[in-house]
Structure prediction request, 246 residues.
Amino acid sequence: MEKQSDEYLGVMDAEYARGRLEKKYLNYRYRVRAQVAANAFREFHPHMKTVDVLEMGAADALTLLHIRELLGANGTFDGIEYAQELIDEAPALPSDTRVIQGDVMNLPDEIQDESYDLTSVLAVLEHLSNPQACVDEAFRVLKPGGIFVATCPNPFWDDVAGKFGMVADEFHETEVNSEVLVTLCQNAGFETIAYRPFMWVFTGVLPYIGVELDPQMSLMVDDLVHKMGLLDFSFVNQAVVAQKPK
Ligand SMILES: C[S@@+](CC[C@H](N)C(=O)[O-])C[C@H]1O[C@@H](n2cnc3c(N)ncnc32)[C@H](O)[C@@H]1O
Prediction:
């Protein structure tokens, strides 16, 4: 795909979608991210029946579709993706789900203020030239009390995985660590902000050697390891969960 400018070096191509269908570890990784987003939402809104979701940087919509399933498939499920060729790789979408071509740092006009209960930015911020603009947009379009979830690979483990050829050679524009994640949320106006490492290095590696893992189960292991303390450096992924003031 022709990249339009340096601002969009983190935009991916159709190869990414094909890899997700073929490689078990990529499938596992996106299902864990979807589970992190759905679990975080349910923690704050356990009984909300209809949920309006915006997945920012939605690629081929597989993660969005999985979030939809996990939240009970009742509401509207929108995705924003810059690469039209990735949108074209999406499977047939249900009538409540769509992916719109656009920039997560400057959302299309049809995405209105205060219209979503959950905005997710999963494995995207590190690809952006201006992650703050994306988090600001996520805040703007959330309803009061709405939940924002962002995930990013831990820069240290991402580097290690790159050296062992375990992650594709993706372009990362920004190094996002725990402080950066929390600061992005604070700057946008979020008040309740929780930082959560996930995907323990020992479980995260299993899908690479062909062991199938249930995402919810692997997050339960993460929770146990996290509670033991002192081992937070051993998570390959990190999430921030924040609520827009009511
Ligand atoms: C690593 S993928 C993550 C996909 C999905 N969120 C998930 O968790 O499985 C990052 C996606 O963000 C998209 N992206 C990068 N920069 C973007 C931008 N400025 N606007 C919209 N999408 C963008 C990429 O093209 C790619 O599809």
Remarks:
- The mean pLDDT is 92.
- The two ends are 42 Å apart (CA to CA).
